[in-house]
């Protein structure tokens, strides 16, 4: 190689190596130590919320789990307590701002501050657009957009006073790629992504970090408690099988590790899963083409069927396909993560 070309290449490589090493050192030095920090997790009684709680507990955090189902909360709290975690459980519906404010006041009175908030509470509705009603859109917006909004508005005064805090908003790849048969879900997750990214820009000057997370399918065991419309048995079987395939979905434990790491390092935007990252980039580059491609996929999905807008939970939509060996990984996750 010509020496006139070789020298600049060597210098460039060395410069890149120093830059990467410097970035790694900076991330290590600014890493948030979670020991003794108070972490509020909404939707923390089961699924991804419970898996996150286990991992935050392993870092020595004080946990507060929030959820609507008191029995599920007590089950989750008992498990964590028996493993040595300092955990509290608060029954709260995040779609109700008065309940959220009462919860935050109670936590701040007990722990003096809330250092980290993970907005994880969510609902899943699956079915063709013909089966969806205005109420379905309202429910998902109340849960995925207004729920985090209520929690953030309640914790911000304390975080601003301290000039510190982390807010982790769990959105979805459905908030970057609009998926057929999940229109209410996608619309609400798109809203959360837009709010969360803008919020990070506005709060950075106050020392408060906002992390937006967009996972793909995760094996949390959630299909059991998702809602299905139209041909609900076929919709549930397809969803549960997809959720269980290793090439399509990732383990909830691996996802939680990446989310916790993003929280500690105040990463602005995180997409989980290599294939999901590639799909998200492609969708951003050519959304029209990707929408047309997904239109082809939609042609093979179940039609509305005679049930129409009747809503059924996954637990009410079982068939030989949804309970077959194809869904074994998701079933085991449901057993581990308090979803049954």
From TrEMBL:
One of its GO terms (molecular function) is oxidoreductase activity. The keyword Oxidoreductase applies. CDD domains: SDR_c. Keywords: Oxidoreductase. InterPro entries: KR_dom, NAD(P)-bd_dom_sf, Sc_DH/Rdtase_CS, SDR_fam. Its EC number is 1.3.1.-. Residues 37-214 form the Ketoreductase domain. Pfam families: adh_short. It comes from the Bacteria. GO terms for cellular component: membrane. The keyword Oxidoreductase applies. Belongs to the short-chain dehydrogenases/reductases (SDR) family. This is Ketoacyl reductase. It comes from Gimesia algae.
